[in-house]
Amino acid sequence: MPDRTGVEMRKNLVGRVLLTAGLALVPWLAVLWATLPEAYPAQHWRAAWVGFDALEIAGLLTSALLVRRDDRRAPLATVATAVLLLVDAWFDVMTAGGDVVMPLVVACTLELPLAALCAVVALRPPVVASVQTAPVRRVAVHV
After folding, report:
1. 3-state SS, residue 38
2. How far apart are CA 44 and CA 110, in angstroms?
3. CA-to-CA distance for 107 and 93, rounded, in angstroms?
4. Angle CA(133)–CA(134)–CA(136) in degrees, nearest 5?
5. CA neighbours within 13 Å on the CB side: how many for 35?
6. Can you give the pLDDT at residue 115?
7. Nearest to 59 by CA among 118, 124, 116
8. pTM of this prediction?
9. What are phi and psi of 136, to 5 degrees?
10. Which residue from 26, 44, 92, 98 has the least number of CB within 10 angstroms?
11. SS3 state at 128
12. In Å, how far are 22, 23, 36, 125, 136 from 33, measured between CA atoms?
């Protein structure tokens, strides 16, 4: 088992790497905003969206199964599913073009509430099973 100092050092290193990566991407946003075209025809549009929704289905079904089993991996599945739902809502609305009403309705009535539910499940404290031991009976053995 690693010593406490090693664990703390790795945690700090991972934290620094993630922070640096996040901060480095901030100027990249400005580059993207300035250089990407306003509109762009995309290939494989149908496959991209069907594949993405298939991932959402897999996430919802996996989350449901793990939550019902009270599996310790349920928070991982539900937070991933929440992210997928949020991303789907964002891109549905942002790529809607002139008719944004239906994507907003779907986002507000389905995707965002499901994402919130998944986030609540992911953030709930884990249920710790209580362990009850059977009373020990001492039996005398005569030889």
Report:
1. coil
2. 25
3. 8
4. 115
5. 6
6. 95
7. 118
8. 0.74
9. -85, 130
10. 98
11. coil
12. 17, 17, 6, 40, 70
The amino acid sitting at 32 is L
Dump pLDDT digits (tens) for 41-70. Answer: 889 989 999 999 999 999 999 999 999 998
Would you state the structure tokens that stand for residue 9, as one six-digit string?
A: 């050092």
Decide if 125 contacts 111 (C-beta within 8 A).
no
Please name the residue that has the structure tokens 């599996």.
Answer: 71
In the predicted structure, residue 125 carries a pLDDT above the cut 80: no
CA gap 107, 91 in Å, rounded = 10
Read off the tokens for 1. Answer: 């088992």
Distance separating alpha carbons of residues 98 and 50, to the nearest angstrom = 22
